[in-house]
């Protein structure tokens, strides 16, 4: 949908070297594109280590994004995050 297209546009802008503010990149759910990407990988069953390797970032960076995503979605667990993502569509 439109959210996916917006996220793709943000990714392309970033790949082209443009800085895109997190607030502009955030969707209606309040997650940044990276937070949403990591949350979706959690929903797929990936561990923090797997996510870090896949995205070429540190495990600590994954943990930071997850902490912020948990707060924004109002959840306290990976299962809660998966359920919240299901409600977002």
Can I get a quick summary?
The protein is mostly helical and 89 residues long.
How is the topology of this model organized?
Blueprint: H1 2-15, H2 22-25, H3 33-43, H4 48-55, H5 59-73, H6 78-88
Helix pairs in contact: 3-5, 3-6, 4-5
Could you explain the architecture of this structure?
The protein is mostly helical and 89 residues long. The chain has a single domain (2-88), classed as Orthogonal Bundle (Arc Repressor Mutant, subunit A), CATH 1.10.10.10. It contains 6 helices and no strands. The chain has helices at residues 2-15, 22-25, 33-43, 48-55, 59-73, 78-88. Helix 3 (33-43) packs across helix 6 and helix 4 packs across helix 5 (59-73). The longest helix has 15 residues, at 59-73. It is globular. The termini are close together. InterPro entries: Sig_transdc_resp-reg_C-effctor (IPR016032), Tscrpt_reg_LuxR_C (IPR000792), WH-like_DNA-bd_sf (IPR036388). One of its GO terms (biological process) is regulation of DNA-templated transcription. GO terms for molecular function: DNA binding. It holds the Pfam family GerE. This is Helix-turn-helix transcriptional regulator.
Q: Helix- and strand-based class? A: mainly alpha
Cα separation of the termini = 9 Å
| Low confidence ranges | none
Radius of gyration: 13 Å
Number of strands: 0
The CATH superfamily turns out to be Winged helix-like DNA-binding domain superfamily/Winged helix DNA-binding domain
Keywords: DNA-binding, Transcription, Transcription regulation
Domain HTH luxR-type: 24-89
Pfam family, one: GerE
Organism: Herbidospora galbida
């Amino acid at each position: 949908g439109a959210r996916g297209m917006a996220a793709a546009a943000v990714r392309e802008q970033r790949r082209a070297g443009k800085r895109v503010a997190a607030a502009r990149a955030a969707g209606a759910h309040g997650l940044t594109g990276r937070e949403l990407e990591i949350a979706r990988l959690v929903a797929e069953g990936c561990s923090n280590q797997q996510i870090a390797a896949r995205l070429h970032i540190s495990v600590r960076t994954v943990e930071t994004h997850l902490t912020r995503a948990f707060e924004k979605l109002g959840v306290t667990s990976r299962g809660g995050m998966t359920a919240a993502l299901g409600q977002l569509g």
